[in-house]
Amino acid sequence: YFTTFDNGSNGALGADLLAELTRQREKTVRSLAAIDADIVALTELENNGYGTGSAIADLTDALNGVVGAGTYTFVNPGVPMLGSGAIASGFLYKPAAVSEVGTAAFLNTAGIFEGTDVNVPPLAQTFAVTEVGNPSFGEKVTIAVNHFKSKDGTGTGANADAGDGRGNWNQTRIDGANALTAWLAADPTGGGDSDVLLVGDLNAYVREDPIAAIQAAGYANLDTASYSSSDRGIWGTLDYAFANDRLAPQVTGVARWRINADEPAIFDYNEEFQSAAQLNNWYNVDPYRATDVDPIVIGLNLNTPVPPSDATNQPPENLLPAVPPTIQVNQILAPIDLAIFDRESGVVPLQVTLTATQGTLALPEITGLDFLAGDGTDDTTLSFLGTLDAINIALAELRFTPTADFVGEASIEITTDDRDTSRPGGAQTDTDRLTISVTAEVPETPPQPGSNDGDDRPSGTPSNPTIPDISTATQFCPQIGRPSQLPGPNSTLNTIAGRFVEGDDNPNTLDGRSQVQVTFSGWAGDDNLLGSPGDDLLFANQDADYIEAGEGDDWIFAGKGNDRVRGNGGNDRIAGDLGGDRLFAEEGNDLLFGNAGNDRVDGGSGDDTIYAGMDDDAAVGGIGDDVLAGDLGNDCLHGEGGDDRLFGNLGMDVLDGGLDNDRLYGGRENDTLLGSLGSDVLSGDRGNDLLLGGFGGDRFDFSPGDGSDTIADFTDGIDIIGLRDGLTFADFTFAQVGNDTQMMAVGLSITLRGVNTDAIEVTDFAQV
């Protein structure tokens, strides 16, 4: 962010014109205002001081112009410039929430942070929470913002590009990491607090040497399962947040806001190579593509108790189901309800080793784990490293498949090693064995005459209702379903072939089928964009367009209007934008965004991720393990085949898991959740929800305050009620209301249709 414009010789970065600076300022301010952080760490500011007109003052004034005068101020380290380089790092903060403690400090070690081809001087400041009523009131944290030397240029010796992805200046970045952590250990701000957060653009991917050096100094990478940037086809993380061992237990959450890395560069503030019409239509005053990397947001509760560093290391604990599970022959066990706990978990990744007998283990969700043995696909032994949260998220998806036709006792042995050698007592482990009874299949006994249809409850006792036909959600959401014929192209007057083609205000067909790879921009009119077999970039822009990609991994932006998109093969990224769009990804592991309008989105085969977006949408995952999110509006989500995860979010939604073992989360308002076939997990969340598990042993999850929900087909002895967020069996009162059981707890009412209260026991519940 520069307020000085590049004249070709002054080395200025950022905007080249006042118009570009205005556009950049608008986008940057919108993103900062939306994040609404108490403290903001910034990199790549112009190093032009702290007076009126400086980059940091200009940005602060613009931000306050949107969020309110005086909301933010900036840290002034008391020097004319932060070193002698072109760029600097900085802090904004809310004086109503925090205050500066000690002095702002920066490191300008010659050859590392000062000179030619060096890292930007790091800036550190200790902040105290001064907002009355904040749980962290009176607590302090020291934050250091950094910007290491980029991979570009031409290094020599240890700084030369070795051709392995590390690029140039790797040794300079390593030296910067070592000097930085040593400096922070000496309390450079004089703030007198040992909680340290290290953030910034380190220009090194997560497995590279500078990151290892920071971790070796006792810092934990707070976001190991994400990416922040895309650079010349390489996706990865260059921007980080690290916490030392004192701060790590006080981190309440970490998230990336996907507003930059996934967006094409043509949507940013630059005006080069764009016509007047493109400047107007490809730019919007919003947070998207304000810069080229995604912001990372960190939550802290600085009042969290932290064990003293000299306390004896306590062993981790494996948490097993209270009752060993039983399954029938050739039946998959999922979820298994395994978890781990480590009260001192922080910097050092935990190691978990799982060993199965008479079966194999699979982890469909492996994000954030570093595998040492096995890979999560049908292994007898799995061993991996990860944070406590990442491991428990993965264990929640663990599946056990018994050996074919085996009947008897199987098992899973779990060993957790905290690998913490920094405390007295050294590293600690916990090993447990979960037994799994695999029984022969029990045939159903046909009902005998006069036996009350095989039900041994006395005559007149309410019985479970007949399960409705819920193999699809069409009776609740008629618009769900794959059309018998996919859409075809528009009728146009003009066909343009080529690799780089831009349309005009007329309806055109841009034909790239004979090309290796294409970039098309359709512009106005009802256009056809026909991609190549390669990896294409297709922008339809305005009006009702038809876009058909080829077999490659394509990026498709349908733009405004009621568009129709076919992805065909490959792992495609498809965005609908405004209008009622029809998006069909077809084969491949695809990412789809319906965005605004009443959209129909179909993932097709493959493991797809669908964000339906605003308004009333219908989305079908297709064959594969899919993730579907409804967002705003009254949405209809159908997982179809595979182990799917469906999130209704806001609106009155209908979620249908379809085949296999699905997880359904209704979100807010009054939703309908249909598990259909398989062993599903259904959580209505807030609102008055209708839950139908369907065929298979299902779990219905509830938390305090979830509203008034109804389970239409609860089967005693087969289905389970999951209790979350501190809810226990003892919290409920039970009443027989007609043929139904009504269960009441704080802010929660559950009706079990056709179930006798006397049949409900503690064994029908599980803590999850």
Automatic annotation (TrEMBL):
<dbReference type="InterPro" id="IPR018511">
    <property type="entry name" value="Hemolysin-typ_Ca-bd_CS"/>
</dbReference>
<keyword id="KW-0378">Hydrolase</keyword>
<keyword id="KW-0540">Nuclease</keyword>
<protein>
    <submittedName>
        <fullName>ExeM/NucH family extracellular endonuclease</fullName>
    </submittedName>
</protein>
<dbReference type="InterPro" id="IPR001343">
    <property type="entry name" value="Hemolysn_Ca-bd"/>
</dbReference>
<feature type="compositionally biased region" description="Polar residues">
    <location>
        <begin position="460"/>
        <end position="472"/>
    </location>
</feature>
<dbReference type="GO" id="GO:0005509">
    <property type="term" value="F:calcium ion binding"/>
</dbReference>
<dbReference type="GO" id="GO:0004519">
    <property type="term" value="F:endonuclease activity"/>
</dbReference>
<keyword id="KW-0255">Endonuclease</keyword>
<dbReference type="InterPro" id="IPR011049">
    <property type="entry name" value="Serralysin-like_metalloprot_C"/>
</dbReference>
<feature type="region of interest" description="Disordered">
    <location>
        <begin position="415"/>
        <end position="472"/>
    </location>
</feature>
<dbReference type="InterPro" id="IPR047971">
    <property type="entry name" value="ExeM-like"/>
</dbReference>
<dbReference type="Pfam" id="PF00353">
    <property type="entry name" value="HemolysinCabind"/>
</dbReference>
<dbReference type="InterPro" id="IPR036691">
    <property type="entry name" value="Endo/exonu/phosph_ase_sf"/>
</dbReference>
